[in-house]
Write a sequence for this structure.
Protein backbone atom coordinates (compact mmCIF):
# COMPACT_ATOMS: atom_id res chain seq x y z
CA UNK A 1 0.00 0.00 0.00
CA UNK A 2 1.33 3.39 -0.98
CA UNK A 3 2.33 5.81 1.77
CA UNK A 4 -0.51 8.34 2.29
CA UNK A 5 2.03 11.16 2.57
CA UNK A 6 3.42 10.24 -0.84
CA UNK A 7 -0.13 10.13 -2.24
CA UNK A 8 -0.81 13.60 -0.85
CA UNK A 9 2.44 14.90 -2.34
CA UNK A 10 1.67 13.45 -5.77
CA UNK A 11 -1.87 14.83 -5.60
CA UNK A 12 -0.50 18.29 -4.84
CA UNK A 13 2.12 18.11 -7.60
CA UNK A 14 -0.46 17.06 -10.17
CA UNK A 15 -3.59 18.71 -8.82
CA UNK A 16 -2.31 22.26 -8.35
CA UNK A 17 -1.11 22.69 -11.98
CA UNK A 18 -4.38 21.15 -13.23
CA UNK A 19 -6.42 23.56 -11.12
CA UNK A 20 -4.40 26.50 -12.46
CA UNK A 21 -4.86 25.39 -16.06
CA UNK A 22 -8.59 24.86 -15.46
CA UNK A 23 -8.91 28.32 -13.91
CA UNK A 24 -7.09 29.93 -16.85
CA UNK A 25 -9.40 28.17 -19.29
CA UNK A 26 -12.44 29.22 -17.24
CA UNK A 27 -11.32 32.86 -17.13
CA UNK A 28 -10.75 32.98 -20.85
CA UNK A 29 -14.13 31.34 -21.48
CA UNK A 30 -15.87 33.92 -19.28
CA UNK A 31 -14.04 36.79 -20.94
CA UNK A 32 -14.97 35.45 -24.37
CA UNK A 33 -18.67 35.73 -23.48
CA UNK A 34 -18.40 39.30 -22.19
CA UNK A 35 -18.84 42.37 -24.41
CA UNK A 36 -15.58 43.74 -25.74
CA UNK A 37 -15.96 46.96 -23.73
CA UNK A 38 -16.07 45.01 -20.44
CA UNK A 39 -13.22 42.61 -21.12
CA UNK A 40 -10.48 45.15 -20.36
CA UNK A 41 -11.84 46.02 -16.92
CA UNK A 42 -12.92 42.48 -15.98
CA UNK A 43 -9.68 40.71 -16.93
CA UNK A 44 -7.48 42.12 -14.09
CA UNK A 45 -10.09 41.26 -11.43
CA UNK A 46 -10.55 37.73 -12.73
CA UNK A 47 -6.80 37.14 -12.73
CA UNK A 48 -6.46 38.62 -9.24
CA UNK A 49 -9.38 36.62 -7.84
CA UNK A 50 -7.29 33.62 -6.56
CA UNK A 51 -4.84 35.91 -4.78
CA UNK A 52 -7.67 37.98 -3.31
CA UNK A 53 -9.47 34.85 -2.09
CA UNK A 54 -6.22 33.55 -0.60
CA UNK A 55 -5.68 36.84 1.25
CA UNK A 56 -9.30 36.87 2.43
CA UNK A 57 -9.21 33.32 3.78
CA UNK A 58 -5.71 33.26 5.25
CA UNK A 59 -5.16 36.92 6.25
CA UNK A 60 -8.35 38.94 6.58
CA UNK A 61 -10.56 36.30 8.22
CA UNK A 62 -7.90 35.20 10.79
CA UNK A 63 -7.24 38.84 11.68
CA UNK A 64 -10.94 39.55 12.25
CA UNK A 65 -11.38 36.31 14.21
CA UNK A 66 -8.34 37.12 16.38
CA UNK A 67 -9.69 40.59 17.19
CA UNK A 68 -13.08 39.13 18.09
CA UNK A 69 -11.49 36.41 20.24
CA UNK A 70 -9.46 38.97 22.17
CA UNK A 71 -12.67 40.68 23.32
CA UNK A 72 -13.99 37.66 25.23
CA UNK A 73 -12.80 36.14 28.51
CA UNK A 74 -12.38 32.43 29.18
CA UNK A 75 -16.07 32.14 30.08
CA UNK A 76 -17.10 33.53 26.68
CA UNK A 77 -18.30 36.89 28.05
CA UNK A 78 -17.42 40.18 26.35
CA UNK A 79 -14.57 41.72 28.33
CA UNK A 80 -11.41 43.79 28.08
CA UNK A 81 -9.71 41.66 30.72
CA UNK A 82 -7.28 40.22 28.18
CA UNK A 83 -5.93 43.67 27.35
CA UNK A 84 -5.90 44.67 31.00
CA UNK A 85 -3.85 41.56 31.79
CA UNK A 86 -1.30 42.53 29.16
CA UNK A 87 -0.80 45.95 30.75
CA UNK A 88 -0.66 44.69 34.34
CA UNK A 89 1.16 41.33 34.19
CA UNK A 90 4.87 41.36 35.00
CA UNK A 91 5.73 38.86 32.24
CA UNK A 92 4.06 40.84 29.46
CA UNK A 93 5.50 44.12 30.70
CA UNK A 94 8.96 42.53 30.72
CA UNK A 95 8.34 41.31 27.16
CA UNK A 96 7.31 44.82 26.13
CA UNK A 97 10.46 46.24 27.72
CA UNK A 98 12.67 43.69 25.97
CA UNK A 99 11.04 44.48 22.63
CA UNK A 100 11.95 48.11 23.25
CA UNK A 101 15.57 47.06 23.75
CA UNK A 102 15.39 44.98 20.58
CA UNK A 103 13.96 47.93 18.68
CA UNK A 104 16.73 50.32 19.67
CA UNK A 105 19.76 48.01 19.52
CA UNK A 106 18.84 45.87 16.51
CA UNK A 107 17.96 48.92 14.42
CA UNK A 108 21.13 50.77 15.41
CA UNK A 109 23.46 47.79 14.87
CA UNK A 110 22.01 46.58 11.57
CA UNK A 111 21.47 49.94 9.88
CA UNK A 112 24.68 51.46 11.26
CA UNK A 113 26.74 48.38 10.45
CA UNK A 114 25.14 48.04 7.03
CA UNK A 115 25.99 51.67 6.26
CA UNK A 116 29.62 51.24 7.33
CA UNK A 117 30.11 48.05 5.31
CA UNK A 118 28.31 49.46 2.24
CA UNK A 119 30.59 52.50 2.15
CA UNK A 120 33.80 50.60 2.90
CA UNK A 121 33.18 47.68 0.52
CA UNK A 122 32.42 50.15 -2.27
CA UNK A 123 36.14 51.00 -2.28
CA UNK A 124 37.79 47.57 -2.36
CA UNK A 125 38.63 45.25 -5.24
CA UNK A 126 37.13 42.18 -3.55
CA UNK A 127 33.78 43.95 -3.15
CA UNK A 128 31.63 41.11 -4.50
CA UNK A 129 33.25 38.46 -2.32
CA UNK A 130 33.06 40.61 0.80
CA UNK A 131 29.39 41.39 0.25
CA UNK A 132 28.61 37.73 -0.42
CA UNK A 133 30.18 36.76 2.92
CA UNK A 134 28.25 39.49 4.76
CA UNK A 135 24.96 38.54 3.11
CA UNK A 136 25.38 34.78 3.61
CA UNK A 137 23.83 34.60 7.13
CA UNK A 138 20.51 35.79 5.71
CA UNK A 139 20.36 32.57 3.68
CA UNK A 140 20.16 30.65 6.97
CA UNK A 141 16.75 30.33 8.59
CA UNK A 142 16.29 32.14 11.90
CA UNK A 143 15.69 28.80 13.60
CA UNK A 144 18.89 27.40 12.12
CA UNK A 145 20.83 30.49 13.20
CA UNK A 146 19.39 30.16 16.70
CA UNK A 147 20.53 26.54 16.92
CA UNK A 148 24.01 27.42 15.65
CA UNK A 149 24.48 30.25 18.13
CA UNK A 150 22.99 28.32 21.04
CA UNK A 151 25.83 25.83 20.64
CA UNK A 152 28.30 28.67 20.12
CA UNK A 153 27.24 30.33 23.39
CA UNK A 154 26.64 27.17 25.42
CA UNK A 155 27.75 27.38 29.06
CA UNK A 156 28.89 24.73 31.53
CA UNK A 157 29.81 25.37 35.19
CA UNK A 158 33.48 26.14 35.90
CA UNK A 159 35.55 22.99 35.97
CA UNK A 160 33.31 21.18 33.49
CA UNK A 161 34.28 20.61 29.84
CA UNK A 162 33.00 23.56 27.83
CA UNK A 163 31.01 22.46 24.77
CA UNK A 164 30.24 26.02 23.69
CA UNK A 165 32.69 27.33 21.09
CA UNK A 166 33.17 30.77 22.65
CA UNK A 167 33.60 29.46 26.19
CA UNK A 168 36.02 26.81 24.93
CA UNK A 169 38.09 29.55 23.29
CA UNK A 170 37.99 31.65 26.45
CA UNK A 171 39.09 28.64 28.49
CA UNK A 172 42.05 28.09 26.18
CA UNK A 173 43.43 31.51 27.21
CA UNK A 174 42.67 31.06 30.91
CA UNK A 175 39.40 32.96 31.11
CA UNK A 176 36.52 31.38 33.02
CA UNK A 177 33.30 30.41 31.23
CA UNK A 178 30.80 33.20 30.67
CA UNK A 179 27.04 32.52 31.02
CA UNK A 180 26.16 34.42 27.85
CA UNK A 181 22.48 33.42 27.85
CA UNK A 182 21.82 33.27 31.59
CA UNK A 183 22.48 36.74 33.02
CA UNK A 184 20.07 39.59 32.14
CA UNK A 185 20.21 42.04 30.48
CA UNK A 186 23.39 40.83 28.75
CA UNK A 187 21.58 37.73 27.47
CA UNK A 188 19.02 39.89 25.64
CA UNK A 189 21.89 41.81 24.06
CA UNK A 190 23.45 38.53 22.90
CA UNK A 191 20.17 37.49 21.27
CA UNK A 192 20.05 40.84 19.50
CA UNK A 193 23.63 40.35 18.28
CA UNK A 194 22.59 37.01 16.77
CA UNK A 195 19.70 38.73 14.95
CA UNK A 196 22.05 41.51 13.84
CA UNK A 197 24.44 38.89 12.44
CA UNK A 198 21.62 37.87 10.12
CA UNK A 199 20.13 41.26 9.23
CA UNK A 200 23.26 43.41 8.78
CA UNK A 201 24.03 41.86 5.39
CA UNK A 202 20.53 42.70 4.19
CA UNK A 203 20.93 46.34 5.23
CA UNK A 204 24.37 46.43 3.61
CA UNK A 205 23.01 45.23 0.25
CA UNK A 206 20.20 47.81 0.21
CA UNK A 207 22.52 50.65 1.18
CA UNK A 208 25.19 49.46 -1.24
CA UNK A 209 22.69 49.76 -4.07
CA UNK A 210 21.90 53.29 -2.90
CA UNK A 211 25.62 54.13 -2.77
CA UNK A 212 26.02 52.89 -6.36
CA UNK A 213 23.26 55.28 -7.38
CA UNK A 214 25.18 58.36 -6.23
CA UNK A 215 26.79 60.24 -9.10
CA UNK A 216 30.55 59.69 -9.20
CA UNK A 217 30.97 63.05 -10.92
CA UNK A 218 29.39 64.76 -7.91
CA UNK A 219 31.74 63.03 -5.48
CA UNK A 220 34.82 63.68 -7.63
CA UNK A 221 33.87 67.36 -7.97
CA UNK A 222 33.69 67.69 -4.20
CA UNK A 223 37.13 66.09 -3.83
CA UNK A 224 38.59 68.37 -6.49
CA UNK A 225 37.22 71.35 -4.55
CA UNK A 226 39.26 70.22 -1.54
CA UNK A 227 36.67 68.33 0.51
CA UNK A 228 38.05 65.57 2.70
CA UNK A 229 36.58 62.06 2.61
CA UNK A 230 34.81 62.70 5.90
CA UNK A 231 33.27 65.88 4.48
CA UNK A 232 32.22 64.10 1.29
CA UNK A 233 30.49 61.43 3.33
CA UNK A 234 28.84 63.86 5.76
CA UNK A 235 27.76 66.50 3.25
CA UNK A 236 26.96 64.43 0.13
CA UNK A 237 26.84 60.65 0.64
CA UNK A 238 24.88 60.53 3.88
CA UNK A 239 22.14 63.01 2.86
CA UNK A 240 21.59 61.13 -0.40
CA UNK A 241 21.32 57.85 1.51
CA UNK A 242 18.74 59.13 4.00
CA UNK A 243 15.68 57.85 2.05
CA UNK A 244 17.12 54.31 1.93
CA UNK A 245 18.19 54.56 5.58
CA UNK A 246 14.66 55.62 6.53
CA UNK A 247 13.14 52.58 4.81
CA UNK A 248 15.63 50.27 6.51
CA UNK A 249 15.05 51.79 9.94
CA UNK A 250 11.32 51.14 9.67
CA UNK A 251 11.95 47.62 8.33
CA UNK A 252 14.19 46.84 11.30
CA UNK A 253 11.66 48.32 13.71
CA UNK A 254 9.06 45.90 12.34
CA UNK A 255 11.55 43.00 12.56
CA UNK A 256 12.31 43.94 16.18
CA UNK A 257 8.65 43.99 17.16
CA UNK A 258 8.07 40.59 15.54
CA UNK A 259 11.19 38.93 17.02
CA UNK A 260 10.35 35.33 17.90
CA UNK A 261 12.41 32.57 16.27
CA UNK A 262 15.77 33.34 17.83
CA UNK A 263 14.32 33.89 21.31
CA UNK A 264 12.21 30.73 21.14
CA UNK A 265 15.11 28.53 20.01
CA UNK A 266 17.86 29.95 22.23
CA UNK A 267 16.10 30.71 25.54
CA UNK A 268 12.32 30.33 25.06
CA UNK A 269 11.95 33.57 27.00
CA UNK A 270 13.72 32.24 30.10
CA UNK A 271 16.20 34.28 32.14
CA UNK A 272 14.26 37.52 31.52
CA UNK A 273 14.56 37.41 27.71
CA UNK A 274 10.82 37.24 26.96
CA UNK A 275 9.46 39.15 23.93
CA UNK A 276 5.89 39.86 22.87
CA UNK A 277 5.64 37.25 20.11
CA UNK A 278 7.08 34.50 22.30
CA UNK A 279 4.68 35.46 25.10
CA UNK A 280 1.79 35.19 22.67
CA UNK A 281 2.93 31.69 21.71
CA UNK A 282 3.14 30.62 25.36
CA UNK A 283 -0.30 32.00 26.21
CA UNK A 284 -1.87 29.96 23.42
CA UNK A 285 0.06 26.69 23.42
CA UNK A 286 1.41 26.47 26.98
CA UNK A 287 -1.30 28.11 29.11
CA UNK A 288 -4.23 27.42 26.76
CA UNK A 289 -5.46 31.02 26.96
CA UNK A 290 -6.55 31.92 23.41
CA UNK A 291 -8.15 35.16 24.56
CA UNK A 292 -4.95 36.49 26.09
CA UNK A 293 -2.90 35.25 23.13
CA UNK A 294 -5.28 37.02 20.75
CA UNK A 295 -5.05 40.23 22.77
CA UNK A 296 -1.26 40.12 22.57
CA UNK A 297 -1.52 39.48 18.81
CA UNK A 298 -3.81 42.50 18.42
CA UNK A 299 -1.44 44.71 20.41
CA UNK A 300 1.48 43.48 18.32
CA UNK A 301 -0.53 44.26 15.19
CA UNK A 302 -1.30 47.76 16.45
CA UNK A 303 2.39 48.34 17.11
CA UNK A 304 3.45 47.03 13.69
CA UNK A 305 0.82 48.47 11.32
CA UNK A 306 1.81 52.16 11.73
CA UNK A 307 5.41 51.28 10.92
CA UNK A 308 4.27 49.35 7.85
CA UNK A 309 2.21 52.27 6.53
CA UNK A 310 5.08 54.66 7.21
CA UNK A 311 7.40 52.32 5.30
CA UNK A 312 5.03 52.21 2.32
CA UNK A 313 4.77 56.01 2.32
CA UNK A 314 8.55 56.39 2.35
CA UNK A 315 8.93 53.90 -0.51
CA UNK A 316 6.35 55.78 -2.59
CA UNK A 317 8.01 59.10 -1.81
CA UNK A 318 11.39 57.67 -2.81
CA UNK A 319 10.00 56.41 -6.11
CA UNK A 320 8.47 59.81 -6.80
CA UNK A 321 11.94 61.38 -6.77
CA UNK A 322 13.45 58.78 -9.10
Amino acid sequence: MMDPHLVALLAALVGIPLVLVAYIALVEAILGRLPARLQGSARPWLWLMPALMFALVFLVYPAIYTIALSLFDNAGRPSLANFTAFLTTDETLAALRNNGIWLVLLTAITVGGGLVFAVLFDRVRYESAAKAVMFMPLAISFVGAGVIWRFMLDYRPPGSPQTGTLNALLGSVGIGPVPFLLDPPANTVMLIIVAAWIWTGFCMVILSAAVKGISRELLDAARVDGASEAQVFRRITLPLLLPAIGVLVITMVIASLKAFDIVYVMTNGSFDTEVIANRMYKELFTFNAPGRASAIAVILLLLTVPAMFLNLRNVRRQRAFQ
Summary: The chain has a mean pLDDT of 89. The chain has two domains: 4-70, 88-320.
